[in-house]
Design goal:
Elements (H helix, E strand, L loop, with lengths): L3 E11 L3 H7 L5 E12 L4 E5 L6 H8 L7 E6 L2 E2 L5 H8 L2 E4 L13 H11 L6 H14 L16 H13 L5 E5 L7 H18 L2 E6 L2 H7 L2 E6 L2 E7 H6 L4 H8 L9 E2 L39 E4 L2 E3 L13 E2 L2
The structure holds adenosine-5'-triphosphate.
């Protein structure tokens, strides 16, 4: 049994002009941020979730945790249907499923000390009987993530970006969760600090037996740490599979275009850069047929009309593209 199972999960937001629509009596606009997603995450695994900004990665992560209530679909964690839990049961489940945010500063209360911020989940879940016990637990996890005892009574603004992310990690881990959504946890950090935080997250995963859904727009980060990868485009998963397999043999033209942007250092030839035309279409009015067809260099007329089914293309490897059978690739090597 998978630790996490997501079935048909959708999250639609009322469009930003929702109030205007109500006043004018116009039909409501709907932002289809996440559409009918199926995925599983095994215990101890890192599933990487990749896609460009605005494709719905954060929304999916938050819908799984019910931080944003899903519009439709089911989430099951360790056999319990998360999407059917009542508020009291959901509160208990939150101890087990946590999130680390991209921007540690925005997610840390500026008026609270590190000890208060990291100690809050202990209070919420009744995990410490006395203040002294809470302080001890906070000190232990803070030490583990690399904060010094003398820093516990300081405020977030007194820390660097990397240290703030360590505070965010300590807060997520203090309640001993089993599953963490890591929502672009290193994207806001300097490159030199990114490697330290990634190393820390990998060590903690091993020591605490954690399972991660790791969201990133950086394919090299995903290639480095994930076991499997799911590629997202405009609210849907277009390709998924073991990370080495998907990166070595990307089958969806969108995955291929993401891959073509990665510099190859140890290659005799270099890859032809695939330039996608246009921006990511708005999830307010997603294209018909295959949602990628408006930017896909391989699109035919049929792609604008027919929604491609997800097909198995290798062991554990799936993709959704009408032209899969033709085995086309945008990634021809060009001579150095
Ligand atoms: N609360 C909201 N109300 C309306 N639309 C929203 C809301 N939150 C997100 N969206 C829209 O949903 C879509 C997906 O956003 P989301 O933040 O999940 O994407 P993302 O892939 O995580 O992007 P980024 O990497 O920039 O965070 C976007 O078009 C966004 O504008």
């Amino acid at each position: 049994m998978s630790l996490l199972k997501v079935e048909g999960l959708s999250k639609h937001y009322e469009g930003r002009d929702g109030i205007f629509d109500r006043i004018t009596g116009r039909e409501k606009t709907v932002v289809r941020a996440v559409n009918d997603i199926d995925l599983t995450v095994e215990k101890g695994e890192i599933l990487g979730l990749i896609g460009e900004s605005g494709c719905g990665k954060s929304t999916l992560g938050r819908a799984i945790l019910r931080l944003h209530e899903p519009t439709k679909g089911r989430v099951t964690f360790d056999g319990a249907e998360v999407t059917a839990l009542d508020p009291a049961q959901m509160k208990a489940m939150r101890r087990r499923m946590q999130i680390i945010f991209q921007d540690p500063y925005a997610s840390l209360n500026p008026r609270r000390t590190v000890a208060e911020i990291v100690g809050l989940p202990l209070r919420l879940h009744g995990l410490a009987k006395t203040d002294a016990e809470a302080r001890e637990k906070v000190a232990a996890i803070c030490a583990r993530v690399g904060l010094k005892p003398g820093q516990l009574d300081r405020y977030p603004h007194q820390f660097s970006g990397g240290q703030r992310q360590r505070i965010g990690i300590a807060r997520a881990l203090v309640s001993h969760p089993e599953f963490i959504v890591c929502d672009e946890p290193v994207s806001a950090l300097d490159v030199s600090i990114q490697a330290q935080i990634i190393a820390l997250l990998l060590e903690l995963k091993r020591e605490m037996g954690l399972t991660y859904l790791f969201i990133s727009h950086d394919i090299s980060v995903i290639g480095y740490l994930a076991d499997r990868v799911a590629v997202m485009y405009l609210g849907e998963i277009v390709e998924m599979g073991p990370v080495e397999e998907v990166l070595a043999n990307p089958r969806h033209p969108y995955t291929q275009s993401l891959m073509s942007a990665v510099p190859e250092v140890d290659h005799a030839g270099r890859r032809k850069r695939v330039r996608l035309t246009g921006d990511l279409p708005s999830p307010l009015r997603p294209p018909s047929g295959c949602k990628f067809h408006t930017r896909c260099p391989l699109a035919t007329d049929a792609c604008g009309k027919i929604v491609p089914k997800t097909e198995t293309v290798g062991p554990g490897h799936t993709a959704a593209c009408l032209r899969l059978a033709e085995n086309l690739s945008l990634l021809e090597e060009v001579p150095a």
